[in-house]
Amino acid sequence: MTIKNPIYVTQPFLPPLSEFTPYLENIWDSKILTNNGPFHQQLEKALCEYLGVEYLALFSNGTIALITALQALRITGEVITTPYSFVATAHSLLWNGIKPVFVDIDPSTLNLNPARIEASITPHTTAIMPVHCYGHPCDVDSIQKIADDYNLKVIYDAAHAFGVQNERGSVLKYGDLSVLSFHATKVFNTFEGGAIVCPDAKTKKRIDQLKNFGFVDEVTVVGPGINGKMNEFNAALGLLQLKHIDQALVRRKGIDATYRELLKDVKGIRCLRDAGEKVANYAYFPILVDADYPISRDALYQKLKDQDIFARRYFYPLVSDFPMYRGLPSAHRDNLPVATDAALKILCLPIYPALRQEEQGRIVELIKRA
Ligand SMILES: *Cc1c(COP(=O)(O)O)cnc(C)c1O
Known about the structure:
Layout: E1 7-8, H1 21-30, H2 38-51, E2 55-59, H3 62-72, E3 78-81, H4 88-94, E4 99-102, E5 125-129, H5 140-150, E6 153-157, E7 165-166, E8 169-170, E9 177-181, E10 194-198, H6 201-210, E11 215-217, E12 220-221, H7 232-263, E13 269-271, E14 285-289, H8 297-306, E15 309-310, H9 337-345, E16 346-349, H10 357-368
Parallel strand pairs: 1-15, 3-4, 3-5, 5-6, 6-9
Antiparallel strand pairs: 2-10, 7-8, 9-10, 11-12, 13-14, 14-16
Bound molecules: pyridoxal-5'-phosphate.
């Protein structure tokens, strides 16, 4: 049997190419390619409106934005974070000479467990870096309470949380800073890109200086900044994509609901329940393959792969198991039993706006017939 269409865990959402032509013509006419150009300014404004936040600084990618966010708040020493994330979360700490301290996750949300944070605070702790995993909001109130009690900063890795809202509005407004990624695999993409959401104009100014080598004006450099600027091409992609995002989210919501319905009685397959968000983004569809499922998680992963369906073990391995982290005392598996268990059971199923109903049906049938 020949299978023509491989199904990947995600497929970037691209509006019709013809709609992008006017943006390109504009760039070619103006010859403004980067450095806070007109599309960059428009996208910052449009994203603030769409996301319901006050200030946002665009970046070339989410990782440089994370590194810069730590610089902006002058974070040093130790930072408490989750091992259950994409490796860039902890890497951003190492790039700043900061020691990551891993704390276990909550078994129902797979987000950093606030009840486990206090025991890991030392005199060197300066901040907490939680992740809104799969776009499910963290327990932001409990985390803020601990931060206030111990005088710590909070930087959210919000790479998964584009557009997510709780009862009080955007989840990007919690903590001191939130960092977004607009990588090709994310719900909203600019091919590569990212942003820092910040609470006031003064912080945005500092971030804007840091992302442009530390330049304040033509002849003044205030610090060892980096080149984190988003260019006009990527900003234009973002403006175009924003016109289609609501429609894309409706499709994702439908796929999410269908999976939940079709998988609800499959023994050994657990869908992660939502974490109470008012507006979700359906960025991922994670399932947990429990011990009472007939085959192992890895066997199911392989079975799907044999049919050209590429699910993703996301997050496996844990960040704390990579060589540059595993020597840390907090990386020990005994310290991280919930995360260790989740990493062995997790499988993210394909979800993206263009996923067809019959394709989704085929995926579910293969899971049911194990
Ligand atoms: C995607 C992602 C990043 C990195 O973002 P890039 O834009 O790819 O640099 C960081 N953290 C998490 C949780 C992510 O999913």
